[in-house]
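Example 9 (inverse folding). The structure is encoded as follows.
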């Protein structure tokens, strides 16, 4: 089963997108800028609105995060990551169901949400 997953188009696309994203210099610069802005914001976030430059740092962080998230290579990677996670969720649900319908699987995916007491993301196999 693992070999088939690794040979699948979804897995191969995920790997290619991951490599492409991590090798892209623009993405690396955006990620570094985001990290710096996040660290700067984290230093004052505990003080909330009373901290000097709170709103400015918060806006700068959000703007940088948005630029990173909207970069085409990051977006492609995240899409392929989500698709692969969906496949993995389906596999684990099928495996769990072969053992018992009472097995609870926490997929973390609202698509598989059930009416169980474990809340969203849990699914009975």
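The amino acid assigned to each position is listed next.
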């Amino acid at each position: 089963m693992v070999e088939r997953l690794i040979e699948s188009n979804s897995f191969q696309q995920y790997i290619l997108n991951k490599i492409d994203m991590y090798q892209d210099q623009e993405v690396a610069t955006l990620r570094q800028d985001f990290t710096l802005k996040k660290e700067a914001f984290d230093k004052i976030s505990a003080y909330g609105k009373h901290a000097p430059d709170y709103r400015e740092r918060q806006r700068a962080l959000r703007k940088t995060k948005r630029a990173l998230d909207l970069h085409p290579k990051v977006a492609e990677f995240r899409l392929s990551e989500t698709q692969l996670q969906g496949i993995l969720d389906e596999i684990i649900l099928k495996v769990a169901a072969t053992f018992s319908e009472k097995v609870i699987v926490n997929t973390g995916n609202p698509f598989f949400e059930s009416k169980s007491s474990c809340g969203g993301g849990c699914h009975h196999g």
